[in-house]
Amino acid sequence: MKIVLDIETIQVPKEEWARLKGLTLLPVEAPDLLAAGEASEQDREYEKSCFDSTYCQIICIGLLIFSDAMEPQEATAWFGSNEAELLRQFWARIAQLKPSLIVVHNGLGFDLPVIRNRSMIRQIKPTIEISLARYRTEQVYDTLAVWSNWEARGRVKLDVLARVLGCETKSGDGDQVAEMWKAGQSKQIAEYCLRDCYVTYACYARMNFREPLSSETVLFSPNLIEISG
């Protein structure tokens, strides 16, 4: 089996973020310009923390499952506020699948290290060992890494790569996830995550000189599993 993987993350509550960093939260209405500047910098740092495994929370893991011949088998997304159970169910499914290949976009730099670190924090033991070694594509094929030849100057966003390769593009941006979460749009986040999985698959197909199947074919009857509490 081969899988395509993507995750969505948000910041932990600001008070928890400050506690973990050993900071004192500055008041929103600071009494002078210096304090206001510090508060603003603190806010900016907090906003970026959704992409840092030390301070973020995984709220969705999307998975497309293919046969070894890249025939679509399943589209599943776990989503919700219970990160530990989300990880537990994800690793249980991975144990069943025993994937021979994991396809990601920036997964070596973000998705897979975040899953690993958040699993350690939540004490959910991974069911398989996933190598995060660079300069290889045997277990993990990272479309960003391959496209850029593992160099920073060639890095491109997924939607850019999709347009370059003539694939269907993304339906939104990861920066919108936190606002969607606040608005209670968790199911829409899961659908967005699976859409990202599809675009990653399509790019992978084109990068290996294959014609990707349509999103309607790959994302047939998606299995959206809400995990809360």
What keywords describe this structure?
44% helix; Nucleotidyltransferase, domain 5; alpha/beta; globular; 229 residues; 9 helices; 6 strands
Report on the architecture of this protein:
The mean pLDDT is 92. This protein has one domain (2-10, 61-226): Nucleotidyltransferase, domain 5. Helix 6 (158-165) crosses helix 8 (186-207). By secondary structure, the chain is an alpha/beta fold. The protein has helices at residues 14-21, 33-48, 83-97, 107-122, 143-148, 158-165, 177-182, 186-207, 215-218, and strands spanning 2-11, 56-66, 72-79, 101-104, 140-142, 223-226.
User: What's the helix count?
Assistant: 9
Task: Give start-end ranges of low-pLDDT stretches.
Answer: none
Q: Could you tell me the strand content as a percent range?
A: 15-25%
Overall helicity = 40-55%
Largest sheet, spatial ordering of strands: 5-4-1-2-3-6
The CATH architecture classification is 2-Layer Sandwich
Compute the number of structural domains.
Answer: 1
Distance between the terminal alpha carbons, to the nearest Å? 32 Å
CATH topology: Nucleotidyltransferase, domain 5
Largest sheet: 6 strands, mixed
CATH C-level name: Alpha Beta
- Can you say what the CATH homologous superfamily is? Ribonuclease H-like superfamily/Ribonuclease H
Dominant shape: globular
Annotation, overall tally of beta strands: 6
Query: From the alpha-carbon coordinates, what is the Rg to the nearest angstrom?
Result: 18 Å
SSE sequence, one letter per element: EHHEEHEHEHHHHHE
